[in-house]
Design brief:
A hairpin with a 5-residue loop joins strand 47 (about 585-590) and strand 48 (about 600-605). It is elongated and about 115 Å long. With about 625 residues, the chain is mainly beta. It contains three helices and 50 strands. Keywords: Membrane, Signal, Transmembrane, Transmembrane helix.
Length: about 625
């Protein structure tokens, strides 16, 4: 009779569980086993793909008893409490074996198998009976109890717990900030509050009902150690000095009688990113206030291997900067503030681009911060008129044994160098620099004479010496003036590019309305017409350079043309004032002179009417440098 009562108890529990989880997914499978025998709960998955997360839960509360993250290549985790200790085993398909079963193992088991492709659910109702009862007896008892359970179904449905979902929230915060997660609902006396992290697997904080006892936990791998603050009045949870490893899904559960309120917070943590131009200073500031005895350590490098570059030693307060590490790239440029712990890098170079990590060790707990610093190359611009000469200067003293390299274009084509005291000149297959380059042996300066559109672009200077390698870049642009041609002639508007890169975008616009008339985007070129169709069959776009040609020009093509070049180095703008001069012709007209003789008279006939123009010079603006030239 005792065994019958146990089975009855279990089936009532099972019925209540089914009512509670009537929305649950997955088929239900009934299994019966005698006490002491093993039972295998088969997932019926023929083969796993290698990216699955397998989670097994037991009972009404969905207690986690086994978990295997196959993609992480970690061993399975099992419940270490007394009930299932050393009696659970997962195989390669995710099936669960329970050895040496007990009557207390009776209940509902649920498995969830998640992968990138799909999520599978399955449920098992396991009955563990005491040896001595026949299979027929057990079956009869089960049928009888099911009938009895059906009779009280209405009562059980009424008593089932209710789950109310509160509005979810999404947070995006910076690393090092304090993040308060607020329930945004009134907390009542007796409410039991639980905060869980990552798919509700890990309890990280709780407030117990009537006693109001508050507890915070360190979480997996102690990632929340000394970082959680729980508010008894509001139930809010604050994560102090948050790190990227704290990003994820946080779940709040408020249990109030038979009702459970649930709210989810999806928290994303971004690293602090700083971008500065070469030659400027960068200051990295801690997110928290520094105390007197704190140990401050600044490290630099990639994420896998970092080098200590500066530190403040706790009690002594001694400040150390290390110039002899990281290829001596930080020599004489590091400043560490003993009051704030801030690190300043003066006169930055591109070599200072990388990951900087701050570690703070104090009596109140340890913390860390990450900064992603990008130092962009400074490009010196030279804006010229067509036909002018330009001299590009290193602005540094050249030593006798220095090797000077001058390169041109996106491919760094070598055009001139000084090596071993000897000046050497080079030219490309197009002979664009023939008789146009002069290299000063003493200063290393490069002069380009009679600049034309094909000479515009990026020039790179590289100085290699025993002191290291210095790189400097120059961008040479031609300032276009008014373009004046006679009607019927072609108009050629240059971009100044030798070749468009795949990610570059070119836009040509016309008139006061900035109508788009031609563009190159994603390697594809296209021309457009305006509303009055003045450009029909007149536009030709060079897909290699982006140059625009207006064929068979007419006075109606007179106006302002604007060019925008978008590249990885920023946006460059140019404006052309185009004037199409009306064509005139001289005709001979017969006229009778006063003497009575016939003579020919030259008459000028205007073929097209000239429009009025302001005839302004071109504007060239580089968006990154913030300069404008006329």
């Amino acid at each position: 009779m005792k065994e019958i009562f146990k089975i009855f108890q279990f089936l009532l529990l099972m019925y209540e569980s089914l009512a509670v989880i009537d929305a649950a997914k997955g088929e239900m499978k009934l299994m019966s086993v005698k006490e002491g025998d093993p039972v295998i709960l088969q997932t019926d998955v023929p083969q796993l793909t290698g990216d699955e997360l397998i989670v097994w839960r037991f009972g009404d509360e969905g207690k986690l008893i086994a978990k295997h993250d196959i993609e992480a290549k970690r061993p399975p985790l099992y419940d270490e409490e007394e009930r299932f200790r050393d009696r659970l085993q997962l195989d390669q398909t995710g099936s669960l074996t329970i050895t040496n079963t007990r009557t207390t193992d009776s209940g509902v088991y649920k498995v969830k198998i998640s992968s990138n492709k799909q999520t599978l659910y399955k449920r098992f109702t396991v009955t563990v009976s005491v040896p001595g009862l026949s299979g027929g007896a057990v079956a009869g008892i089960v049928v009888g109890v099911l009938l009895l359970a059906a009779a009280v179904a209405g009562v059980m449905y009424y008593l089932r717990p209710r789950i109310t979902d509160l509005p979810n929230q999404t947070w995006t915060v910076m690393e090092g900030d304090d993040v308060p997660l607020n329930p945004e609902t009134d907390i009542q006396t007796g409410d039991e509050i639980q905060w869980l992290f990552v798919y509700e697997d890990t309890l990280i904080a709780e407030i117990k009902g009537e006693t109001r006892e508050m507890t915070t936990h360190e979480g997996p791998d102690q990632i929340f150690k000394n970082r959680l603050k729980l508010d008894e009045t509001t139930g809010s949870l604050t994560i102090t000095e948050i790190l990227t490893k704290h990003a994820g899904l946080y779940t709040l559960k408020i249990r109030r009688g038979r009702e459970t309120l649930k709210k989810r917070f999806n928290v994303s943590v971004e690293e602090r990113k700083i971008t500065e131009m070469e030659g400027e200073s960068v200051t990295l500031k801690p997110a928290r206030e520094i105390k007197k005895d704190d140990v401050i350590r600044w490290l630099f490098g990639d994420r896998e291997q970092q080098t200590l570059i500066a530190e403040i030693k706790g009690k002594t307060g001694e400040i150390l900067t290390r110039d002899d590490v990281a290829d001596e790239r930080f020599r004489d440029i590091l400043e560490l503030d003993e009051t704030t712990g801030s690190l300043t890098i003066t006169n930055t170079r591109t070599a200072h681009t990388g990951v900087y990590k701050l570690e703070i060790r104090s009596s109140s707990g340890d913390s860390e911060q990450t900064f992603i610093v990008t130092v962009r190359e400074k490009v010196e611009q030279k804006l010229l008129k067509g036909g002018e000469s330009v001299t590009l200067k290193p602005d540094t003293e050249i030593q006798r044994d220095d090797q000077i390299l001058w390169m041109f274009g996106d491919q760094d084509k070598l055009i001139a160098q000084i090596r071993g005291g000897t000046v050497e000149m080079y030219d490309d297959v197009n002979k664009r620099f023939r008789d146009r380059l002069k290299l000063d042996k003493k200063t290393g300066s490069l002069t380009i004479t009679k600049i034309e559109a094909e000479h515009t672009g990026l020039y790179k200077l590289q100085i290699i010496s025993s002191r290291g390698t210095l790189v400097k870049r120059f961008k040479v642009l031609i300032q276009q003036r008014d373009v004046v041609v006679a009607a019927g002639e072609s108009v050629h508007l240059y971009t100044g590019l030798n070749e468009i890169q795949r990610d570059d975008e070119i836009q040509w616009r016309f008139g006061d309305k900035n109508s788009l008339i031609a563009e190159i985007k994603g390697g594809t070129g296209e021309t457009h017409d305006v509303t009055d169709e003045r450009f029909r069959d007149s536009l030709e776009l060079n897909k290699k350079t982006g140059d625009l040609i207006i064929k068979n020009s007419r006075t109606k093509h007179t106006g302002r043309y604007k060019l925008k070049i978008s590249s990885s180095e920023g946006n460059t703008y140019s404006t052309y004032s185009v004037f199409i001069r009306a064509r005139t012709e001289s005709l001979l007209k017969e006229k009778t002179a006063d003497t009575g003789k016939r003579v020919n008279e030259s008459v000028t006939v205007e073929m097209e009417k000239d429009p009025l123009l302001n005839g302004e010079d071109v504007d060239v603006v580089n968006e990154e440098e913030g300069t404008s030239s006329l």
